[in-house]
Amino acid sequence: MKCRICGGEATIKLKSYNIKLCEQDFLNFFKRRVAEAIREYKMFTHQDRILVAVSGGKDSLSLWDILAQMGYQTTGYHLYLNIADASEQAFEAVKNFADKNNLPLIVDRLDEIIGAGIEQASKVMKKPPCSVCGMIKRYRFNRLAEEKGFSVVVTGHHLDDECATLLGNLLHWQEGYLARQYPVLEEKEGLVKRAKPFVYVGEEEIKIYARVRGINYVQTPCPYSRGATSLIYKRIIKEIEEQMPSTKIYFLKAFFKNYRERFYAEEEKVKLHPCPECGYLTVGEICNFCLLKKKLQKFSSQK
Ligand code: Q46
Ligand code: ZN
Fold it and tell me: What are the pocket residues of ligand 1 if the criterion is a CB atom closer than 6 Å to any ligand atom?
């Protein structure tokens, strides 16, 4: 097998692109895809201070790795969820990566910021753990941006994640979500800018990247990720891609370019106002983070 670029020995085959590459040319190819997304959506520049949300899995650690390689100013952010062994392993992976690469890391421990673990938080909010976890992370991102001067938060969502989300949103005609699904969400009224630099790279490519770069990650950073309905959509998207290579990238790019704006009107209906407790923008009476803290207080005083 010959590398398409240098003609040397190829060890990597990328089905979606119908190319074979050697490791070095794969790394260059991968970096170009990421750079293209950063440029196309004006995600950030070398002047920005970037907060990278890291779970300890391959996607987020690979993202942190490549952005640091590209010379961006990055700081890792890890939310320690207090789930027995899983959280400790995830934390170890993140900590080791940060130490090895000499990169700054911020760790929030859930028991310290809300006085409870994710399971209890999910119970009092009567919402799935992932929904509460996502809410807490968003809240903390905005707070950290404000307090420590980060101008953008990046997450490891990749092409397969985004296609799965898009398929799910279309199947349920979630118009508000469709309006908001985009590789970059600009800063607005106290909400920090967010970006997904892996939007053009697939999960398989990230796996290869992590292997070639020797990144030690945890296979399942969180036990809750297994039950997600998004896995059903991901499996279906994967099957379609196998039969029809390049469908994923077409599906997503065409949506961003030609269809997303049709849902804008839906988004504008949402009116935000500052939470009376903490000042964070919210649609509810108080923000969900303050609501969670109140519910936990009530719960512990009833015990
Ligand atoms: S950490 Fe949190 Fe994920 Fe675990 S509880 Fe769900 S959202 S699966 S990235
Ligand atoms: Zn609040």
Answer: 55, 118, 129-130, 133-134, 222, 224-225
